[in-house]
Specification:
Blueprint: E1 7-8, E2 11-12, E3 18-23, E4 28-34, H1 38-56, H2 59-75, H3 77-88, H4 92-110, E5 117-121, E6 125-133, E7 136-140, H5 146-159, E8 163-167, H6 174-182, E9 192-194, H7 201-208, E10 214-218, H8 221-232, E11 237-241, E12 246-250, H9 256-268, E13 278-284, H10 288-301, H11 320-335, E14 339-342, E15 357-360, H12 367-370, E16 377-383, H13 386-394, E17 401-405, H14 409-416, E18 423-426, E19 445-446, H15 451-457, E20 459-467
Parallel strand pairs: 7-8, 7-10, 8-9, 10-11, 12-13, 12-17, 13-16, 15-16, 17-18
Antiparallel strand pairs: 1-2, 3-4, 5-6, 6-20, 11-19, 14-15
Helix pairs in contact: 2-4, 3-4, 3-6, 4-5, 9-10
């Protein structure tokens, strides 16, 4: 798949150099992507800036275009899903779910409107708050769910009247480039440009570029800090979602026989490569063995394989560095006396496959508990008191999500409210929706792009005050 092109100003950009994209199921080349030049980035930014006045002037035209964009994604779902599997590795069924979510984000954004808010209306004055588009948005997406995360950024930004220059990860650029090609005939020229680069240099150039007024980034804490630092020089708006080390707490009345499979998929969906997946599970000491047995049974029964194989539920890790990272954390835990009650090692086959792993005996202070593994390995940690479990859950720089599990939902909700995170679920995990804000606290980031709050992130406030 080497004929994909970047979209700049509504047209295909010339391909001057390319880089290889690897299939994580084989680590063989599955396609090539263009390597954006500095001149091409300037052209994309200029086209985006030129498109702002017209695009921002007609909300109904924006809504119509976004609906057509959603339809275009739906019509191309099969094609896009297969490209996504080839470069990301997830099972085909999961790729289809991601495409449905991406289309849904566009449809949801089509119904968003910037409504004026009357702050004062009396004999003295009329004061009305208006929200205006910022201008050009630089959007930088990760490799774990490239299409839905990209549309979670692009759709509300466009709905608010901004234009967007979008850059996918160099590990998964192909499906996003193809999406950009599909939308050339749907969106006016310059409204959405899609550029790709072989490394982090392109993202850094976008962040530093003088044209964008906001950077919306999803990725690692290390890179997110660099984005925030770079954007500060130009006082750009920044929204950064930087991953999490989400805790889940099983209460005494949580039945592992009933809940283990749901907890498992809260941790292992997309091979654990979800920023808001369960990354550590705290369970009562006297139910510890029951939880380990129940989770092991689920882990050992899950079909693992290449995303296009029939019946596969878990694919490979997306890239070799991430597979190495997960292996290091698991090996470190085992070196510190932990036990893998399921999995514990790579699978003996080509690609970046790692067996679904349940870790017993890893306490706080061990890297796989303290750090984000972002892979198919879950440490299960016993607790003697609920207060101790909550303290351990909160004793981290991360603050993206968390969950509490128990048969008494009201009691579980009271415990969930004590977790220091942007979203705290009860008897479920990682449930995300376009209409619900999704934000982090602490080092998991700030800003967001879901719900009305996320929509407003892409705007600047202006008060119109009329003296009477």
């Amino acid at each position: 798949m080497s004929d994909l092109t970047m979209t700049i100003g509504g047209e295909a950009a010339a391909v001057e150099a390319v880089f290889d994209v690897l299939d994580p199921a084989t680590n063989e080349v599955c396609g090539q992507a263009p390597d954006c030049t500095a001149e091409q980035l300037d052209a994309a930014m200029s086209a985006a800036a030129a498109a702002v006045p017209s695009w921002s002037s007609d909300a109904e035209a924006r809504a119509s275009a976004l609906r057509r964009a959603g339809e275009a994604v739906e019509e191309a779902e099969e094609d896009l899903a297969r490209i996504l599997v080839s470069e990301q590795g997830k099972p085909l069924a999961d790729a289809h779910l991601e495409l449905k979510g991406a289309a849904g984000r566009l449809r949801f954004a089509a119904d968003l409107r910037l409504q004026p808010e009357v702050l004062q209306d009396d004999e003295q004055a009329l004061a009305v708050l208006h929200r205006r588009p910022l201008g050009v948005i630089a959007a930088i997406s990760p490799w774990n769910a490239p299409l839905i995360i990209s549309m979670a950024k692009v759709a509300p930004a466009l709905a608010a009247g901004n234009t967007v220059v979008l850059k996918p990860s160099p590990y998964t650029p192909l499906s996003t480039l193809r999406l950009g090609e599909l939308l050339r005939d749907v969106l006016p020229p310059g409204v959405l440009s899609v550029v790709s680069g072989r490394d982090g240099a392109l993202g850094a150039a976008m962040t530093k570029h003088s044209v964008p007024r906001m950077v919306d980034f999803t990725g690692s804490i290390r890179t997110g800090k660099l984005v925030a630092e770079s954007a500060a020089g130009d006082l750009k708006r920044v929204a950064v979602e930087l991953g999490g080390n989400d805790p889940a707490i099983a209460l005494q009345d949580a039945d592992p026989g009933e809940l283990a499979e749901r907890v498992f998929w809260g941790a292992f969906a997309n091979c654990g490569q979800v920023c808001v997946a369960i990354k550590r599970l705290y369970v009562p000491q006297d139910r510890y063995a029951d939880w380990l047995d129940a989770l092991r049974a689920v882990a050992e029964a899950v079909p693992v394989g290449a995303g296009m194989e029939e019946g596969v539920r878990l694919g490979p890790l997306n890239n070799a560095p991430q597979a190495d990272h997960v292996e290091r954390l698991v090996d470190d835990a085992l070196d510190h006396g932990a036990t893998a009650v399921a999995g514990g090692a790579r699978l003996d086959r080509p690609g970046n496959f790692f067996a679904p792993t349940i870790i017993a005996g890893a306490a706080d202070g061990v890297a796989i508990v303290d750090d984000e593994q972002f892979g198919p390995a879950l440490p299960v940690i016993p607790y003697d008191s609920l207060d101790a479990a909550v303290r351990a859950a909160n004793a981290t720089h991360y603050g993206l999500g968390g969950s509490v599990w128990g048969s008494d939902a009201e009691n579980a909700a009271e415990v969930a409210a004590r977790l220091e995170c942007g979203t705290s679920w009860v008897n479920t995990h990682k449930v995300l929706a376009a209409h619900i804000p999704f934000v982090g606290t602490k080092w998991s980031g700030y800003g967001g792009n879901s719900g009305i709050d996320g929509f407003h992130e892409f705007t600047a406030s202006q008060v119109l005050y009329t003296q009477r």
